[in-house]
Every structure is written in C-alpha cells, then in structure tokens.
Amino acid sequence: MPHTLPTENHYVHRAGWLRAAVLGANDGLVSTASLIIGFAASNASTPTIFFAGLAGLVAGAMSMAAGEYVSVSSQSDTEKADLERERIQHEEHPEAELKHLAQIYEKRGLQPETAKEVARQLTEHDALGTHAREELGISELTTAKPLQAAITSAFTFAFGAAMPLMVVLMVSIENLLEVTAVSTVLFLALLGFLGAKAGGARPIRAVARVIFWGITAMGATAIVGYLFGAAI
Asked: Nearest 5 degrees, angle CA 147-CA 54-CA 222?
C-alpha cells in the first residue's frame, strides 16, 4: 500500500482572519477600558460610564468593520488590476512571460534547463495563477478578503469591549477605576497569549507587547479624566 503523508496544518493559513481577530479584540478591550477609566477618573456616575462604554462598543465595532472593509477592498482592487495586467501581458507576449518565469526559477537556484521546463509545465497547468504567485506574490493564502476581515473585526471588537463593560456592572463606583485597570491587564495578557498560540508565536513577547500599549493607553486617558474631570 502507498504511504500516505500526514496532513500539514501551517500557521500561515490563519494569517488573514487571525490578524483581524487580534486587532479587533485588543482594540475593543483597550479603547473601551480606557474610555471607562477616563470617565471614572472624572468622577462620572456608573450609568454615565456604562452608556459611554456601550456607545464606544457600538461605534467602535462599526468603525472597525467599515475601516477593514474599505482598506482590504482597496488591496483587493489593486490585486485584481495587477492580475488583469498580467493576463493581458500573457496573451500578448506569451514567450516573454515564459522566459521571465524561467528567470525567476533560475534566481532561486534551478539550472537553466530545469527552470525552463518547470516554467513551461506550470504555465500549461495554470499560467495566470503561476505568474500571480511568482511575480506578484498573490496566492490563495494572501489574497484580500474584505467581507471576512470586516465581520471578524466587528465581532472581535465587540467581544473585547464587552469585557470592561461587564466590570462596570459588577464593581462599585469607588473601586471601578482600579478594578478596570487590573482586569484589563489580565484580559490583555489572556488575549495576547491566545493570539500567540493560535499563530505559533512566543507568548511572552506577545503578552508583554499588548500589556505595555494597554497600560499606556489607559494611563493617558486616566490623566485626561483627572485633569478635566471638573469641566466634564
């Protein structure tokens, strides 16, 4: 019986949705927690703080969805334009494109004759796909997916923002600022750890990175709240 090779699951396959998920969850957590801390530092009431955080959740989730969709759509438009140019060049100058492809393989270490044969066979199999991958760096793994990025960012932002909002409902106003800050750091550490594990990266570096920027953001808004609390 022929030996069956085990299925390989590579972390890069998760790159598209993982980037949007990590960005959305961290942004939702840090921005909403910072908003809550800023209002708490200004001596606002619990209902005011909660509804300000809720408004931040809704606005942030929609903003993330719109921003991701627009930016990734721009990337997708660029990819489609390049693919169309590549298609036209291949139709009008097939020999030149074949030679160019062979030169790419030669630069990667193949002998000239081998490079020409590989280029010929791949061109016969899928000319546009091969040139897109080798010349433009566009493949199934890297191609832009606007809707996926928008939905992932919106839901993960809302998930991250919901964490500090739950703290507002569970903690007294006297302890809200301190508990929100501490719990947010713990949530950030958890998100950093999960994101690193999902992407095959080192958890310590990821956790330290998100905690540093989270504390920086919360500290800045706390200072604003203390300074301008009377005016608010």
From this structure: 110
Q: Quote the CA–CA distance of 46 and 169 in Å, as a whole number.
A: 8
64 and 85 Cβ atoms separated by less than 8 Å: no
> Residue 151: what pLDDT?
87
| CB-count burial class (<10 Å; 0-12, 13-18, 19+) for 100 | middle
pLDDT level of residue 229 (50, 70, 90 thresholds)? low
H-helix or E-strand containing 21? helix 15-41
Cβ atoms < 10 Å from Cβ of 190: 15
Q: Which tens digit of pLDDT belongs to each residue from 1-21? A: 444 544 445 444 445 556 667
Q: Is 2 helix (H, G, I), strand (E, B) or coil?
A: coil
Look at 17-31, 65-79, 171-185 and tell me which has the smallest mean pLDDT.
17-31
Nearest to 192 by CA among 40, 16, 30: 30
CB 173 within 8 A of CB 167: no
Smallest CA-to-CA distance from 158 within 230, 11, 53, 78 is with 53
Decide: pTM greater than 0.70. no
pLDDT on residue 118: 78
CA angle in degrees (0–180, nearest 5) for 50-56-58: 105
Q: How many CB atoms lie within 10 A of CB 119?
A: 24
Q: Degrees (nearest 5) of the Cα angle 188, 142, 15?
A: 20
- Name residues whose C-beta falls within 8 Å of residue 186's C-beta, 6 or more positions apart in sequence: none
pLDDT tens digits along 210-223: 888 888 888 888 88
